[in-house]
Amino acid sequence: MKFVQILEEPIAPGGLVEWTPFVPGGLGEWSTDSRPTSHNHEQHLRSAFAYRLRTRREGGRESWLGLAIEFDEPLSIPALRSALLTWIDRHEVLRSHVVLKGIRPQDGAPGLVRLTTGPGTVHLRMGKVGWYSDPAPMMDQIAGSFDRATAPLHWPAYMFSTVAREHSFTLLFAGDHSLLDGYSLIVAQNELVTLYRAARDHVTPALPDAGSYVDFSAHERRLADETGPDHPAIEAWTTFLRTGHGQMPRFAAAERSLPPVSHPADATAAPEPEPESGPPQESLTELLLDDEQTNRFTAVCSEAGGSLFAGVLAAMAIVYHDMTGDTEFRTVMPRHTRDSPEWLTSLGWFVGLAPVCLDMSDSPTFGQLIVRATAELKHGRVGSTLPYLRVAELIGGAHPDVVAGEPRFALSFIDTRYAPGAADADAGRARVLRSHSYAPEEVFIWINRTPGGLRVSARYPAADATDPSTGDLVGTFIHRFADLLRSTGDRSTFATDG
Question: What InterPro entries does the record point to (predicted)?
Answer without folding.
Answer: CAT-like_dom_sf (IPR023213), Condensation_dom (IPR001242)
